[in-house]
Every structure is written in C-alpha cells, then in structure tokens.
C-alpha cells in the first residue's frame, strides 16, 4: 500500500508541474494583454514585478504543499489546501474572467472603439470579480442566514403543530480552522431559535474524522427540547482519503461515530427513532449516503423504515437530494425529507425571488423547498464550505422548519 502512496505522490508532483505550466501561461497572457494598454512604462514595470512576485510565491507555496512529507498524504486535505485554494481562487479566477472578456470583446469592440475600450471593460469585470470573491472569502462564508420555512402538512399529529425543527448540514469542519469563533456564533444563533429538534444531514468532515475533534466542545453546546439527530454524508466515510489499509479506514469511521456521540447527536445509520409529544408521535428515520454514481450508496431505506406503521408520519434524513428524486418520492410514504450535499455550489443568486446556481446543472433539487404529491423535500445549502473557502450569493444556511 505504501508503494501505491508513493506512486500517487509522484503523479501529484507531475500534476503540480502541469498546473504550474497552465498558471504561467495564464500569467503571461494576462501581462501581454495589460501591456497592450497605454500605461506609463514605469508604472507598467512596477505592476509586472508585483504580479510576478505574487505568482512566484504561489508556485512555491503549491510545491511546498505537495512535497511536505509531514503533511502528505494524511493531512493533505486540511486547512493548508483550503487556504491555497482560496489564494488560487482570488488571484487566478479574476484573471481568467479578464482574459475571456478580453478575447471575446476584441472582435466586437476593437473595430469601433479600439483596444483601449476592450481593456477597460475586461479590467472592470476582472476587478468586480476580485472584489466579489474577496467578500466571499472574508465575509460571505460566515454570513450565516436563518431561512424560515412554514410547512402546511396534511395528517400532522395535533401535538406537533407549531413544532420547530432546525436543520443544519455540510459543516466540513476543517474549513473552520482558525475560525472557531464563527462556529460558536452559528451555535448561538441556533440556540436562540429555541428548536424542538435539531437535525444534522451529513458531511461533518472533509476526509478524516480527526478534523472534527477540535470542535466537539463547541457543537456539544447545541440545545433542543427533543434531542439532536444526525446522519453521515459522502465525505464522512473516508472514501476520498489515503489509508495504509482497510483497518485504518475502519477505525476512522468508528471515530466518526464516536465524535457524533460526544457532540450529543444520535446517529441514525439506516435506523429510525420515535419522537413522542403528549399522546402523539412521529417517526424520524436516517439513512447512510445514497447518491448517483460516482457517489456511494450506503443508504438502505427499507432497513431504515422497517417496522414503522404504514400510517405513521415520517421525517427522513438523507444527505443527497438525488435520493429523494430517484427513489423516495414515488415509492415511500415519507412526508418530509431533509437533505444537504449540494452547498448551492456556494456561489449563485438567491435574491428578490431570483434563485440560480451552477448546482442546478447537476441537481434538479439543489436548494430550498420542493413538493410532489403531498410529500416535501427541503435541501439545506450547508453551513460550511469545501473546495474554495468562499460563498457569494448562497449564504451558509440554518433552516428553521415549522410544522403546521
């Protein structure tokens, strides 16, 4: 297994070299485009030195990531990679927007207005993109939003009218490294909502269960009248990590179970629980991750719903909304399903009744409330971030669902 890891590391270094070549190409094209503008030569020289200094620092940083033996491969997906992805996002995405705009507008504006006009438009869009991404990294990813949803549901047991459920999802706790106070802020917001039930719909970590250990005490402070329940998401199984052997991977999963317990969550892994209120009751079920390939299908809804009476009111937690679309909504008597997983792609538009995200290209149900033949699905946009530590337009979400 170790020889496989070293081979993978070799390929990662080759990938590093390929990435650097692509980045250098982007940098050269960017400088050549800027050079074509009539800027004073002294100013242009200063800008060039500044640009190449920042770019060179990025190349060295990336090389350090892939060659650091103390962190590879065990901790390769921790905060350092997220920090670097944030740097890449902030420095290269605006350049790409600039270049695409520049190349697209040259045949449109060049003949009428000249190259200077093209440069001005491209620079304006590049700077706007940079400012938006800077907001997303510094403020947007911690701009927690409470989304209130009132559900009018047939056959809801009388004692559960007005019942308040807080749903959170996709914490990806490695993304909170160095920002524990932000997580405490989210916990305070949730507790002030005074929920009857708190439900967490998966992806506690990015890859390794140890990522969650620094945050056990914070999340154990979440409070609700009828308890806290959780399920696993696709990232919680360790399928995207490097392991010496199957035993190490199995121990990682055992620690995930233990961490949920320490945080005060009852983990529903293809099981269910009965929630009683006065003389009434509802069933809460949870399944392992079930998604469209290549995402794993650990969920077993038949097992999770077994022995539940046919006339019972059922709330189901399932991490991936594809499960509702492909298996649940037309086959099972589940009144309300709760999912996460999509993050709303962390970037999009959710303003003044307009809702769009690139997530809609992959998921029919990607954020918010959906309805089909008297059954509901709510998709939470997630509280954390993964990939790039940024959110623009799609805020980190705390869902407050009131049953009526």
Which structural traits does this protein have?
404 residues; alpha/beta; 2 domains; six-stranded mixed beta sheet; 9 helices; 14 strands
Number of domains: 2
Radius of gyration: 24 Å
> In angstroms, what separates the terminal alpha carbons?
55 Å
Please give the largest β-sheet: 6 strands, mixed
Question: Which structural class matches the secondary elements?
Answer: alpha/beta
Under CATH, the topology of the largest domain is which? Answer: Purple Acid Phosphatase, chain A, domain 2
* Alpha plus pi helix count: 9
CATH homologous superfamily title of the largest domain = Metallo-dependent phosphatases
CATH class value of the largest domain: Alpha Beta
Describe this structure in words.
This protein is of the alpha/beta class and 404 residues long. The protein folds into two domains: 2-138, no CATH class; 145-403, Purple Acid Phosphatase, chain A, domain 2. It is built from nine helices and 14 strands.
